[in-house]
Amino acid sequence: MTILELSDVCYTYDKGTPMAHEALVNINLKIEKGLMTGIIGHTGCGKSTMLRMFNGLLKPDSGKILLDGKDIWENPKEISKVRFRVGLVMQYPEYQLFDETVRSDIAYGPRNMGLDEDEIARRVEEAASFAGVSRDMLDRSPFELSGGQKRRVAIAGIMAMKPEVLVLDEPAAGLDPKGREDIFTGLDRYRRESGASVIIVSHSMEDMARYCDRLVVMNDGEIYLEGTQREVFGDAEKLMQIGLGVPEVTKLISLLREGGMPIPQEIYTVDDAKAVLISMLGGGRK
Amino acid sequence: MIKDVTLGQYFVGNSLLHRADPRAKLLFAVLYIVVLFFAKSAASFAFALAFTVAMIIISGVPFKSVIRAVKPLAFIILFTAVLNVFWTTGEKLLFEWKFIHIYEEGVIFALYMAVRIILLVVGMSVALTYTTTPIALTDGIEELLNPLKKLKVPVHDFAMMMTIAMRFIPTLIEETDKIMDAQKARGADFESGGLVKKAKALIPILIPLFVSSFKRADDLAIAMECRCYRGGEGRTKLKQLRYGKCDVVLLMLAAVFVSGIILCNIYLPYFSI
Amino acid sequence: MAEPFIIAENLSYTYTDDEGDSTEALKNVSFTVNSGEYVAVLGHNGSGKSTLAKLLNVILTPSGGSLTVGGHKIHADMSEDDVFEVRRDVGMVFQNPDNQLVATIVEEDVAFGPENLGIPRDEIRMRVDDALKTVGMYEHRGAQPHRLSGGQKQRVAIAGVIAMMPKCIVFDESTAMLDPRGRAEVMANIRKLNDDFGITVLHITHYMDEAVMADRIIVVNDGEIYRDGTPKEVFCDVEGLRRVGLDVPQGRELLYELSECGIEFDDNPIDIENCAKLILEKFGAQK
Description:
The complex is a heterotrimer.
Chain A: E1 2-13, E2 21-32, E3 36-40, H1 47-54, E4 62-67, E5 70-71, H2 79-85, E6 86-89, H3 102-106, H4 108-112, H5 117-131, H6 147-159, E7 165-169, H7 177-194, E8 197-201, H8 205-211, E9 214-219, E10 222-228, H9 229-233, H10 236-241, H11 248-258, H12 270-281
Parallel strand pairs in A: 3-8, 3-9, 6-7, 7-8
Antiparallel strand pairs in A: 1-2, 1-4, 4-5, 9-10
Helix pairs in contact in A: 5-6
Chain B: H1 16-19, H2 22-38, H3 42-59, H4 63-70, H5 74-87, E1 93-97, E2 100-103, H6 104-129, H7 134-145, H8 155-184, H9 195-201, H10 203-226, H11 245-267
Antiparallel strand pairs in B: 1-2
Chain C: E1 4-16, E2 22-34, E3 38-42, H1 49-56, E4 64-69, E5 72-73, H2 80-89, E6 90-93, H3 106-117, H4 121-134, H5 150-162, E7 168-172, H6 180-197, E8 200-205, H7 208-211, E9 216-221, E10 224-229, H8 231-235, H9 238-243, H10 250-260, H11 272-286
């Protein structure tokens, strides 16, 4: 089922000036309920503009954004309600923290929603658990935390609004492998337990292959490729043309196929590769 | 996007005023201001007006933009003019009603004052801000103040501060944009409510902005130290300002302006104050 | 014969926070980096790798042990002139591209270091132009830094360091905030500086795919050196690296996983070409 839909969306920055720059050209996109969608593309391809369309931070020049079938710009005065339903975590969100304690910072969103204090407290605890913010962190100042911890607090701040669609712009940027994994598993848990859709922008094909159900590749303000992992990674050549690649292990698999091994093409994670190769090479134990 | 607001509203161009050395322009501007205060007669003001219009034409800056520079000052100009009209006493009474007396001198004085302020703003904008990049302006100020170094005035540090400020203003504007978007995504509302509510709504923007500015300052200080920065002493410079033909022309223009005003004051003393 | 440029013996550093609690960021670390070497320092966030970088440039001074950089002993009581000498030899490129450019114009920023060194104007001009050409930013010399991409800003920062003609450059997570294109640009430049100019490079990172490009990797964990060797040697120990919170290249990971299931290989390559070769051999032998 579709939760969020972009239909013929166009957007130009500085329209009507010599600096005009077409950021989005006729975007048509459907985001499915309950799935994790990955958005891939180079800096300047229009990703960030598109994310700002999802929750009404930017208004399209033409075209419609439908949330649950309803045009979000039908009543511009109600646009802030859309922002509670489509939660956007910006790049390096740790720079938005401001309150005295982690608890009250996470509560900022729910408080803006006008919820009562009991509900806010409940949501803060719940979001903290999803995002991997430990209980003892809640009463500390967000400014004493490490970079990775701050990032998780910022993500919890959006999760606490219980958005039906959670959008994140490079949630793992700059984090080490452990930090990345913590963020992604938290997002996966949020998606499974709340039934929300999650949209992430990432540059890591390996992460995309591991966590995303659907992929959207953008280039020059247009949707370049879109579909399941097989549909997108299957077209390695087309990805290469715009300077993007496939996961390392997929490259390895194509080398093996070239070398004559009858392996199916669609392998994007080490685990899948391992399973296939064990059956072919006849592993011993387990 | 606000990041594209040009600092100091510099207009790209290649006019005489654009090409002149910032030091020459600063000297020119100082002379222009001083002489403007010596203008006394209608003829001197007319001359100053004509001279300024000529400057605008030379600079190639559109008249519309020049007017825009004056607009925010309209209130102050009007206010001083009104004040002058009512408070200046003289010999020729034009109008009288209860305690209000308006003299001809008052009207003339008010008019001159208004023209003076307008010319001041326009002249400064055209000679400096519209035709000089902020960087060139800083360099010019540093060079002109250089002799003060002997008096232990920290000229270099001042110039360094200006440069860093100009380097980071666009970055901070961009950052403010981002933080505003981030808080809007959390339901922040900056538009509705009274003054107190609006001021309160700014806290989630200002605190992150301060925190990151301190971090930036810290990072930058370390980066500068690592690049062997030890203040102005023993430093050389990549660029040196050089006077050229344009500067001679500019100083000639200044001479014309000075003598024009003086001559008008003496030989055409109509409506003098 | 290569001479040692950095010598650390039982080097330690202890942080003390506002409440007086102290944390040992580096514990009795010993290693040597030779002139002209390209070494990656790999470790997760908080492993102590950034502390190491800061010691090399006298931003911090050792709490214990000894550290010699380019013949200068680093200690807390160094004179300002000695610190100056070390910093002239060891350039540093930091993480945040926005927070290390000083001037409002690219070429003026590159000139900042040489200006501080008091180099004559004509030579600064030459150095600035050469440095900008080396990093491929010459055509942007008149640009304002805030109009550049992250990768471009980092290249300007690198040019600023090259123009000072240091013997060694430390990259302190200089790619962490960049997109893949920016990272590739910076990595290509690091390689070039080492290959073409013989500059000693210390690249501090948590990306294993960047570390494999070095000649040697020092893995830091919990303030100690966990491994020190060629990329191939270091990535041999998949289990151990995972334990200290690091990734291994996917090809190596796959071979390791297979060997865990009883499919043994004779070698531990890290690049996919050699991994594929080994698997194909195995497959061929089996038939």
